[in-house]
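for the writeup, i need someone to sanity check this before i put it in the appendix. the sequnce is what the collaborator sent (i think, or maybe the updated version? ugh). structure was predicted straight from it, no edits. if anything looks off just tell me and ill rerun, i have time this weekend
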Amino acid sequence: MTLDAIPIHVVPRHAGSPPPGEPGLSGNAPPLLRELAEQVRRLLESGEPSAIDLSALPLTPADLDWLREKLGGGEIAVTLQAGGESTLDETACAGVWWVTHRNEQGAVTAQLIEVAFVPELVKAHPQDVAIGREQLELLISDL
């Protein structure tokens, strides 16, 4: 049997997929876009937030760069300082947030994509709000 006898089938690439052979890409990032679309659908239908832990997936740095480029940048960026810096960046797709947690030395400890109207980490805890009310009452009592 010669090599000419081996059938070759061309499989079309899906729109948005990285070009074949692009250095460093594993091909694991494009399916995440489909998963995010499903999570956004659920958020709109039920209000149920969700998240994808990027640190737990077999993604290369090039995959993460590709995914971040595809999702683009949004209008809101939040930075929190609590035992290290956490950034919550809305992507160009409203409701889809790129969340990065760093330790006190600045090393990335976790990366997630959160699908939510507002990320849970940004919401004030009721106990903190109660403390804020007490502070306001003290300010008012000093008037």
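Residues 30-46 form the longest helix (17 residues). The mean pLDDT is 88.
thx in advance!!
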